[in-house]
Amino acid sequence: MTPFLRAYLSRMGIEQLPDISIATLRMLHLQHNCTFPFENLDVLLPREILLDEQSLQDKLITARRGGYCFEQNGLFERALKDVGFDVRSLLGRVILANPPQMPPRTHRLLLVTLNGEPWIADVGFGSQTLTAPIRLLADEEQSTPHGRYRLQQEGNDWILQFCHHERWQSMYRFDLTKQYLADFMMGNFWSAHWPQSHFLHHLLMCRHLPDGGKLTLTNFHFTHWQHEHALEQLTLADVPALYDILQKRFGLGVTDHRYGFSQHALAAVMAGFDTHPQAGK
Length: 281
Hints:
Blueprint: H1 3-11, H2 22-35, E1 38-39, H3 41-44, H4 53-62, H5 69-83, E2 86-94, E3 105-114, E4 117-121, E5 134-135, E6 142-144, E7 147-154, E8 157-164, E9 167-174, H6 181-193, E10 204-208, E11 213-218, E12 221-226, E13 229-235, H7 239-248, H8 263-270
Antiparallel strand pairs: 1-10, 2-3, 2-9, 3-4, 4-5, 6-7, 7-8, 8-9, 10-11, 11-12, 12-13
Family: Belongs to the arylamine N-acetyltransferase family.
GO molecular function, one term: arylamine N-acetyltransferase activity
Keywords: Transferase
């Protein structure tokens, strides 16, 4: 077992080296979602989002932070490779908000081939992300611990959809073209710096729970969901309450010398943000 894989598994409370199987892929996928929160704080602080292996390990594992798709799926890809899976990253176009024009490729996801069968894995799409791999098959409803999904095919493109209140909503479209680090760096830079990027205008966070629930945060609005029902909703009164819930409910590390942040720094980020929930990836 590599030192990185040992640290990754330890972060999730796993002691033994898993085998290469669909059961292992499902287990690691869910455990990752439940351990590493989706969050965009570094975009807001602002700090550059670094995608090299050491930076991802230092931030998400050592500093106990989270991240967004380029970080989450970058870390997950490395872990799966270290276990022995055949895996590579793809890039998708986010169409969740029904954009009037085709958007750029700003979402990183994974293609895993197991016993000759292709699977899609994705631990980085916020509150609607997959929490289990799904087969690369068109028009077949597939269940995960946190919802139902399906893929549709249009030519060489695949479209991932999730079922929301018994209606299908498209999330993103992708193809199987080989991507390179430069492609991820370009999409990452756009996501973090494009003036209209929602990552620049809202604090977004999600952590999935093993029982099928999830915790979400949009600015000061916190919700504990169980499937599609809100069990708990809070509008946090101030930055100290926000700083507290980031640590206690989302398990976010704040003390690391490089990737931590103070309550004062968080207050500067949140200045001017309203307390109304906003939709987001």
